[in-house]
Amino acid sequence: MNAKKKRLAILGAGPSGMAQLRAFESAARQGADIPELVCFEKQSNWGGQWNYTWRTGLDKHGEPVHSSMYRNLWSNGPKEGLEFADYTFDRHFERPISSYPPRSVLWDYISGRLQQSDVRKFIRFETVVRGVDFVRESGQFVVRSEHLPSGETADELFDHIVVASGHFSVPNSPEILGIETFPGILMHAHDFRGAESFRNLDVLVVGSSYSAEDIGSQAYKMGAKSVKASYRTKPMGYAWPKGFEERPAVKQINGSTVRFVDGTTAHVDVIILCTGYLHKYPFLPQNLALSGANTLFPEGLYRGVVWQRNPALFYLGAQDQWLTFNMFDAQAWYVRDLILGRAHLPSESDRNESIAKWRAHFESLTEAVEALRFQAEYVRDLIQQTDYPDFDIDAVVEVFASALRDKKDDIMGYRDRSYRSVMTGTMAVPHHTPWIEEHDDSLERYLCAVPDGL
Amino acid sequence: MNAKKKRLAILGAGPSGMAQLRAFESAARQGADIPELVCFEKQSNWGGQWNYTWRTGLDKHGEPVHSSMYRNLWSNGPKEGLEFADYTFDRHFERPISSYPPRSVLWDYISGRLQQSDVRKFIRFETVVRGVDFVRESGQFVVRSEHLPSGETADELFDHIVVASGHFSVPNSPEILGIETFPGILMHAHDFRGAESFRNLDVLVVGSSYSAEDIGSQAYKMGAKSVKASYRTKPMGYAWPKGFEERPAVKQINGSTVRFVDGTTAHVDVIILCTGYLHKYPFLPQNLALSGANTLFPEGLYRGVVWQRNPALFYLGAQDQWLTFNMFDAQAWYVRDLILGRAHLPSESDRNESIAKWRAHFESLTEAVEALRFQAEYVRDLIQQTDYPDFDIDAVVEVFASALRDKKDDIMGYRDRSYRSVMTGTMAVPHHTPWIEEHDDSLERYLCAVPDGL
């Protein structure tokens, strides 16, 4: 009765790829005829960025390490801002937990949702995509993949591609004058795994975004002698504790001495380049590859997901992110519905008009809270197109806005604050140990009711 | 008159790729009609491993960093063992220099030879090869490359491929029980750039080959509190100075405590994995990709260079190496002559027989000096096939053999010894500063006659 089943390649089994698998599984449970799914994942487990590894640089198969995760990374936004509408924290943990859990807890949560289903069988682990080509004649994509343990390569045809490989994995490392003379510990944030060895050292984080803020704070927490954060455009402006200060851009490095553009200098033992990440899709030809800056509404993506130059190819999670997990869901449900023919794809010119409208709006934003509201509006628009469980996005925005105020109020203490779930109404409970004193980021420690002393 | 010019793709402009360019240039100068050469190089300059970068992990374009070079790397074999027969150290420096020069001096030397020619125009810098496919029907290869600064991708046809991308760039990092609990400085030798920051720290190098030997020595030289080197099969066995000792394999890591298989433990602040490198050719389909261990005579390569499964594809420098630069020359001249039709490629079965003979010989070797003689014999065989300037390989072997004895005699002082050039008869002169006291590896410092104090 049916034509030949369509085939969909999902590139990556991180939070976005997992959302795409879950979206199709949810439709299949309701009886939909879904395409054949193949999810390619170069790591040996799912979770993407949340799949911590001690390795840096290249992994055991010689592939670039995907995850930028470090020991003692705790969420930097309240979990109430990223909760799944179809799988709540209450459902997973069966009790209230704190608002800012560590990496292991968040990995457990996103993993838990998929463990309720049978989608793991669609994932080819330790399999990397080497190349994607669009064959105009057949309207299909050829995907070349390599099974890393065996080295076997294969070419396969797909009707659709979902690029879910993320964009916080490939470091952007600018040249700094004299950096090659620096004799100390030097790495990009991507390769940072923990600040324990920075005790009693003078640390410089170059940058003023999330990585600089949190890695600088890690260094402070672990007993660095001093922490300096260097900004290019404007300081983060938090009420930093004693020993933590902001400086303008680095002008030059000469051995262990760093000179800033305001003429001040500092002795430095450690430099962490918190200078952001690149959009990088080495497996895509140029006409399919997203490029450019990390932004809330990248050029060339209709509704932030459909590749305008070839609408059979989609990107998930390619935006800068406030809402993360629930935004990936909103995107994945919409992409699913486009592929299933449930949602209608407008004409090219209508899509162009839509992109232009969203980008114009985006470019008018100046404040963090405006950016947050913009992303909320974007997610609301997506959710309205699908059967993803509706939720009060304005309330989620309010959670984030409170969190921003609390962070301004106490940069080293904000993770001890609690918020109320928009999905369940449950109030978070404080973690048993203040963040600044907690040196163990394991699930076991987090969930134990009466911890042993530090 | 001529058929369409053949096209040759050389993958990599390191010492091997540079040798291949030089080999063709040398023939062209003598009037030969050479193929169209395209050398793809992902770095922005030539020199491969010798092109030092402060970067680790991924480079500014998000590609894996090629070079494993570090500050204060000085040759670990005498330069008299790797001298070009057609471009001597005397010719380049116009005066005698020491036997163990630093990286900058060796880069200058290999660079200098090519600066005498016009081959740089054949190199496409910052251009990475993404894929190579053999098209059986036409007998040609399709090479997909990407110009990294622009992201432009191109597919081109070639008649021959020379893989000269090296095999000391992609780390082999085994799992070690508990390594994820280690809170200190941890990296593979590939990402090591200098030991200055290890001063007063307890350092462990895991491994017992060249990287462990030299990085351990760097740590000692730079004032580490202690250095331990951990071997799997047998110790290096040098007369290490006080504070430097060898231990058997690591059994388990628990925080900063390392337990060895002999039951001893040690506190460690720094771990460098000197656990070798992988053959890794992500741009090749499995039937063209060399794999396996680092050996003096890899499986599947006739005369160590011709890919047996497709003799239009060649590998340079794919062996474990004693002779390096002059061996790459011998290989490059021979590959050139095969491509030019000057040398005759035996039948597949004859090639198989030859491979089996060399491998049987190789497998009978037990001592380092035997391995060295084996490689000398291999190089002699290649040179006899071509017009590469003949030289006294037995004398080169004797230089290495003396160097091995001198190293046994004084592991921290062997680089201060001098040997005589086989090519020119020139005796090396000692460097103005003993290696253990020399903290500057620049060309300027090396060449200055009367150095300032340390």
What would you report as the Rg of chain A, rounded to the nearest angstrom? 22 Å
Q: Termini of chain A, distance in Å? A: 65 Å
Helix/strand-derived class of chain A? alpha/beta
Low-confidence stretches of chain A: none
Shape of chain A: globular
Could you spell the SSE succession of chain A in H and E letters? EHEHHEEEEEEEHEEEEEEEEEHHHHH
Largest chain-chain contact? A-B, 51 and 51 residues
The average pLDDT of chain A is 96
Q: What is the makeup of the main sheet of chain A?
A: 5 strands, parallel
Number of E-type strands of chain A: 18
Strand order of the largest sheet of chain A: 3-2-1-7-18
Q: What is the number of helical segments of chain A per DSSP (H or I, 4+ residues)?
A: 9
Helix content class of chain A: 25-40%
Kindly estimate the percentage of residues of chain A that lie in beta strands according to DSSP.
Answer: 15-25%
Report the oligomer. homodimer
3D structure, described in words:
Two copies of one chain form a homodimer. Chain A is of the alpha/beta class and 454 residues long. In chain A, 25% of the residues lie in helices and 18% in strands. In chain A, the strands form five sheets. In chain A, strands 3-2-1-7-18 form a five-stranded parallel beta sheet, with helices on one face. Chain A has a five-stranded parallel beta sheet with strand order 8-15-9-10-11, covered by helices on one side. Chain A starts with 6 loop residues before the first strand and ends in a 7-residue tail after the last helix. The model of chain A has no long low-confidence stretch (mean pLDDT 96). At the A-B interface, strand 4 and strand 8 of A face strand 4 and strand 8 of B.
